[in-house]
Amino acid sequence: MGQTSFGDGSPDRCIARRLRVDLEHDRTTFHGVPIPRRTDNFPQSLAPGERPASAGRAPRSSIDGLRNSSLESVLAVAEYLLSGCSPEGKKETVRIDAPSADLAVKQLQKRGYEEIVLHTDDVSAHYTHASEVENEITPAEFVKFRYFGSWLDDALFVAWKLYKSGWMVYGAALALLVFRRVMDWPRGLTDYAAAIVVAFPLGFSMLAQIFNPAHRYNRLIEALAWGHWEEVLLRLPRIRDKLPPEEGAFVEAQALAGLGRLNEAMTILKPFADDRQMPAWLYWGRLGDVYFAAGKPEMIVPAQEKALELAPDNPTVLLDLAMSLVRWRGDAARARDLLRQARTHALSDVLEVFSYAIEGMIELEDGNPAQARSLLEQTLDALTPFRHATPLIGSAIDRTCAYLALACAAAGDGKQAAGYYRRAEPRLHALRSTDLIVRCQQALRGKENSIR
Questions:
Q1: With contact defined as beta carbons under 8 Å apart, do 300 and 324 qualify?
Q2: Among candidates 313, 326, 331, which has minimal Cα distance to 355?
Q3: How far apart (Å, rounded) are the C-alpha atoms in residues 103 and 109?
Q4: Which of 445, 355, 354, 364 is closest to 403 using CA atoms?
Q5: Under 8 Å CB-to-CB from 393, ≥6 apart: which residues?
Q6: How confident is the model over 277-332, as pLDDT tens digits?
Q7: What does pTM read for this prediction?
Q8: pLDDT band at 60; cut points 50, 70, 90
Q9: If DSSP codes are grouped into helix, strand and coil, which group holds residue 48?
Q10: How many CB atoms lie within 10 A of CB 53?
Q11: What residues does 33 pair with on adjacent strands?
């Protein structure tokens, strides 16, 4: 859910689910210290004239007035990560188990927390397993994984955890090594042994990254984000046993659909349509990715309408459908209404970012290019810190650039429009985003002699 709405299909479902499946439940550990898998939880507007007080903060009026939301009957209890100011005035990040993001925020408010920021939406909560590693990794550290830029960040984090857990041993080895050097004693086996002990956490953490399944998953998602369908099918078996069954099925189905084998794709997904292995609304929402990859955008909105029918209070579904309506049908009026509805619910910090994009697209459709440009630039700025969290963020950034090209061209700024289009063009062609390619080229015609 989300890839089809915002982007050109397969890789842009970042608005409806976390931009990366969390592999925390299958970490390699040493001395109880897990080898981290970075989470995405990506890698996603307000009524006219409104601006958020803080991204990801829950609207108090709607949460306080919450009754028995229908979402509670749709979702099983899931894990949500939230930050807020405790009654003691401390900034804390905590895990809340609840049936929905709305109820998770409400629980934290009942504890006296203020300035609450939600980090987990109703989709990513199904793939977050922070509780399984919270003895070693705090919720705050779990959230920080989204900003890790490379394997080196992962390795340094593990090394720091090892040093912290065994500080007496490593400290003693270092002290011994320093003492012997200060005394200028001849180097011997003791020095080498102490040096090995001191260096072991860093060396181990570096070596562990070779076997970290998160990197295999990242390469899989990178291929997905660029529409390299054969590569996706080649890489999937190497990581599939680490993924939730429905995730592996949808990735395979998307690749098959992209190769023109939609019937095979739907056969693979059939076991997940009965609401047993995954919520039915999530199944229907994610079908949009498959339909886009198959080159059938006309089937996306009906699938998302079905998801909304099953989960009418789910803000992720509302935002997903709003985005699809404005892109595929030009229905800015209904998209704006869905956007307003979504904002009466708790939005994660990532979903809040994508809400700017939706509002920007709506303003562009309504003939307000200056306001559209401002909102889309906010989106671009807000997505940048997450750019290393998952390859899907890169896809979302490129899609934002495509709409910025349209907004700048409509505002008469041909030079900026051409620049944004050049940035987005490789991805648009890779994902066969014909609608955006044609719109951008038509908008740029006459603005500059060349768009390249």
A1: yes
A2: 326
A3: 10
A4: 364
A5: 14, 19, 40, 42, 43, 383, 386, 387
A6: 889 999 999 999 999 999 999 999 999 999 999 999 999 999 999 999 999 999 99
A7: 0.80
A8: very low
A9: coil
A10: 8
A11: 30
